[in-house]
Structures are given as C-alpha cells and as structure tokens.
Design goal:
about 575 residues, four-stranded antiparallel sheet, about 5% helix
Length: about 575
C-alpha cells in the first residue's frame, strides 16, 4: 500500500460495529507522518486537508481519469457506515489509508484500495445533546495523530495507527448550544477549531490547541467586546449573545502567515434586535495562527438579518486583475454575490462584487469599500412579515466551490431563485434552546423559472459566466475539479454523482448512489491507480430544503431521498 501496511482484527471490528463505543479493530503498522512541509506541498496522490491544499481550491492535479475516459468510471468498492443523517466529510487519504468521519463523530480508518476496515472510533455522546447540525466534516492530520472536533464541543486527538485516544480537551459548553462540526485546521502544530451554535445565542470563537498536549494556546471571539477593536459596531449589549459561529475549516496563506476564516450571522436573525454593523459577523477574518490576533477583515453585509452567514473562507487565488498579478480572495457568498478581494501587506482590499444568483436585498455596492446598501422592504425586522431572495440557504450555502488550477475557472454549486420569508419576533433567550428571532414554520421557498440548482463556471478575471448546467430542484454539494479537466458534484435529490467537462459544462458521466450526496468528493492515487471517492448520505440542510420544497408548487416528495451513509470509491474499468 505505497509504503503503508495494516493489520486488521475482524472480530474486534465486528464488536466495535455492534456496540458503537470507542473500540479498535486493527492497527496500521507503518504510517506516513504528516508534516508542515507535506501540508504546504502535498503529494499529488494524497488528500491531507479539507480542500486538499491550504488555498482551498478543491483541485486535484491527477489526470489519469479525464474527459476522454471518464465514461468508463465504475465503482471499485463501497463501505456502509451504519449511520444515518447528513454525511458531510471528505475522505482524507494518506499514502493508502483513508480516514472518514460520519455523523455521531465516528472515525473510520480504511484501506484506500480495498475498503477493508482497519479501525473504527465511536465516541460516547451525551444523551441530552441537541444541535441543529448533527454531523461532522472531517479529521485533521498532523504528525502521527488525527484531530476530531465533536458535536458535544470537545477536541479529541487520536493515534492514527490505532484510533486510540491520545488526549482530549474541552472546546465549549454543549449545554449552552456550543458545538463543533468542522474539520480542524493545523498550522505548525497548532490545531485551530471554531464553534458552531449561533442559533442558540452563543458568542462564536476560534481557538488553537497544542497538537502534542491539547493545551489551549489562544482563544479569539468573533464577536468583540466593547473594549476590543470592532466592539463599537454593536450598539447594545447584544454582543454577549451575538452569534458569529465558525462552521467551516479555514484556509491558510503561508506567505503572510495568515489563516482566513468565514464567520456566521449575527444572532438572533432580525437586525433590529442587534443594532449596528455587528463585526465580525458575516465576514472573512484573517488571523495570526501564532497569537489568534485578528489582523484584517472584510464584512460582506452589515447587520445581517437574513441568516446569510458567510461561513466558508475565501479561495486564495493568484490571478490577473487590471493587467497585474495579485493575491486574490474569491468568495461566492451566501448573500448571492460573487466577491473579489485582494490580499495586501496592509490588509484586505475590496475589488468588485456582482450577483451570481437572484438577489433583491442589495440596492448597490460601494465601489471603494464594498459596503452594500439595502432595500429595507426586503430586510427582515421584528413584527413584520418580510420576503427576501435568496432564502436563508443563500445563493451558495456551506458547501464549497472549487477553483481549477488548469482552467482558471471557479465552479459554484448555486441555487438560483429560492426565496424566503419570516416574521421577526423578540423572544427571551433560554440557554440551550433555539433562539432564532423567528418562527421556523414561517419560512417559505418560492421557486422561479424552470430550475433551481445551477452548477456555474465563472471566469474571475473577466467576471463572466462561462457555462451553467441547470438542475430541476436544489443543488447542495461541494465541488471537486481535477487536472483531467473534470468537475465532480453530487447534491441532487435523484441521488446521482456526476462528472462534467470543466471547459464546456457537458455532462460526461453519472452514477446513482444509495442516498443523496452532500459531502465533498476527493481524488487520490495509490500505486498506478487514480480513485475518486465521496460519501453518500442525505440529511441536515439538504433534507430541510427538500421538505420546504414540498410546500411549493414543485410539490417534491419530502421523503424521496433515503438516508444512510455509504462511502463510494470509483476508478476506471479494467478490461
């Protein structure tokens, strides 16, 4: 297995599956330790970070599978996780060993060529646990350990060879609604995590832990107090419960030693309950990984009232702008605008923004600062039923776009024409209970046109859409691009996994799976074989959209997509 060997104990594996607690099925005899050098310059055949590289491109340099032969792609092996709900983690691959997380924070170690289980870690979770997103988005790799952030707000270090717990640290208090779903980001031995739970009235933060000991090194709140920079953008004491969740793994720029994170919406939803611009909600923040200091930021929309949390970090792209090469930050946002910013040694500079999906809340964008002006008729408030586009799920939700280092295009999994409405209410906060500022039952989706989902290809230099592939209903999944000029994506309620020509948008291949796919696909290579891997397992936001669409003129079946997680691995058919 390309330098990595394993020992598998079948009996122990069966016991682990039956009892569902922390147990160990086997051991990896030889494991390739993960270093900072490997993370900054990953081997083409491995997938060591959430989006493979620190810049967040979601691009694989592998080209054995390409536009000329992808029609021969076939399933090589599958593995049922035995878990329901939304499977949202990319398979991480390190020299022939695959690590996958599932809902309930289980971690599976598998032989990446055969699908044989090596070990399974299944932590015991509290019986009184409640959160809006019962999922996990992956383990981070560093040294000989894996790092798991849990839905009961713990950070757990596992021995990569055995799955045994090395250390465990507390991140937050799940009783208050603090929990974690993201894959941690490791930079130079510092394991960074963010906390979810903005809909419970928590105050979001990012924290770093020592990879060897689990000791907390720093903690930075995404909602500043009055005596901190940005604190004057909260005109009341709403900052104490102001939201600002961190849901998705950050990206990292080694050149400037900055970690870029996306920050969620302000809480509760109606903006008049938290007056002010509300930094650093609905923003990109640039942190110093050594200290946690917020060096720079850009806020996409102030006083967020739509639940348009900008939780994805921007893509770090070196590209041409006005005839010069710049270090750009590119972000197709939940607010349905395509934002282009510039990294500079003095901060983040706004360049341009334009809508990629129908949006009726912004009336203009300041050409110097990027600050939007609002149509107040479409800005929710307390005591008034307000309709707005896009819906709270945005033009693009937490799922990730991809930038092809080969075509130089950005591929966006968008929803165009899904609108929403709610009547704002002022409710008392009760710790551990939902605190939306709205009755969820008042939300409504209003489809327009002959389709909702769109896989879009954008040229970030010309600001032009190169092609678009429509889907009748929603598109809710992350995108993979490869040097084979391919774009892979799931995300539809027909359970299909699809491959497109990256230059033309032509559909080249599709495979129906057991469930719907909302997880990011990956590409990896072991020996002389390239593989494409993805988890199929519908749930969470995609299922909630499906249920909402059932009340619209589309009248989709709310229960049309079966749940249940399966890892699918594909390769070219052998003759």
């Amino acid at each position: 297995m390309n330098g990595t060997t394993v020992r598998i104990g079948l009996a122990a594996a069966l016991l682990c599956s039956v009892f569902g607690t922390a147990a160990f099925a086997g051991e990896i005899d030889s494991y390739s330790v993960v270093t900072q050098q490997r993370l900054q310059n990953p081997e083409a055949g491995n997938w060591l970070l959430y989006r493979r590289t620190y810049d967040g491109h979601g691009f694989s340099p592998l080209s054995q599978i390409n536009t000329g032969n992808v029609a021969a792609l076939t399933p090589i092996w599958t593995f049922s996780t035995g878990v329901i709900e939304g499977h949202e983690a990319p398979p991480m691959v390190n020299n022939g060993v695959m690590f996958v997380t599932t809902p309930q924070d289980q971690v599976l170690a598998l032989d990446a060529t055969t699908g044989d289980l090596i070990w399974r870690y299944a932590p015991k979770l509290p019986e009184d646990l409640f959160q809006l997103h019962p999922t996990n988005r992956g383990v981070a790799l560093w040294g000989d350990k894996l790092y798991l952030a849990t839905v009961d707000s713990r950070l757990i270090a596992l021995d990569a060879k055995t799955g045994k717990v090395v250390w465990e640290s507390k991140i937050g208090d799940y009783h208050r609604g603090e929990y974690s779903t993201l894959e941690p980001l490791v930079v130079n031995g510092k394991v960074m995590v963010g906390t979810s739970g903005g809909e419970f009235g928590v105050r979001g933060f990012i924290a770093a832990y020592d990879a060897d000991t689990g000791n907390q090194l720093w903690k930075t709140y995404t909602v500043p107090s009055p005596n901190e920079p940005g604190g004057n953008t909260w005109d009341s004491d709403a900052w104490k419960t102001g939201g600002g969740s961190v849901w998705i793994t950050g990206n990292y720029d080694p050149k400037r030693n900055l970690a870029y994170w996306g920050v969620g919406n302000a809480a509760p939803w109606p903006g008049d309950l938290h007056p002010g611009d509300n930094l650093y909600t609905s923003s990109t923040v640039a942190l110093d990984p050594n200290t946690g200091q917020i060096k720079y930021y850009h806020q996409y929309h102030w006083n967020d009232s739509w639940d348009w949390d900008e939780v994805r970090p921007p893509l770090l792209i070196n590209m041409e702008y006005n005839g010069q090469m710049i270090d750009a930050l590119v972000h197709p946002a939940r607010d349905a605008y395509f934002w282009e910013l510039q990294q500079t040694d003095d901060g983040i500079k706004f360049l341009s923004a334009w809508p990629f999906s129908y949006q009726n809340a912004f009336t203009s964008i300041d050409p110097q600062t990027g600050r939007p002006s609002y149509d107040l008729a479409h800005k929710p408030t307390v005591g008034k039923l307000v309709t707005f586009c896009p819906s709270l799920w945005g033009g693009e939700d937490w799922v990730s776009e991809s930038y092809s280092d080969q075509t130089h295009l950005v591929y966006v999994p968008a929803n165009n024409g899904m609108c929403g409405e709610y009547n704002g209410v002022d409710k008392k906060l009760i710790a551990g209970q939902l605190w939306l500022g709205a009755d969820p039952n008042t939300l409504n989706l209003l489809p327009r046109g002959d389709h909702l989902g769109e896989l879009q290809a954008w040229d970030p230099v010309t600001h032009k859409q190169v092609w678009m592939y429509p889907f009748p209903n929603q598109l809710f999944a992350s995108v993979l691009t490869t040097a084979g000029d391919l774009v892979f994506v799931g995300g539809t309620n027909d359970r299909m996994f699809r491959a497109f020509d990256a230059r033309t948008g032509e559909l080249l291949w599709q495979q129906r799976t057991n469930s719907g796919i909302i997880a990011p696909p990956v590409a990896y290579q072991v020996g002389d074989t390239e593989y494409i891997a993805v988890q199929s397992g519908w749930g969470v936001d995609a299922q909630r959209i499906q249920q909402s669409l059932s009340t619209t003129p589309l009248k989709v079946d709310p229960d049309a997509v079966p749940q249940g997680g399966v890892i699918w691995v594909f390769a070219l058919r052998r003759h």
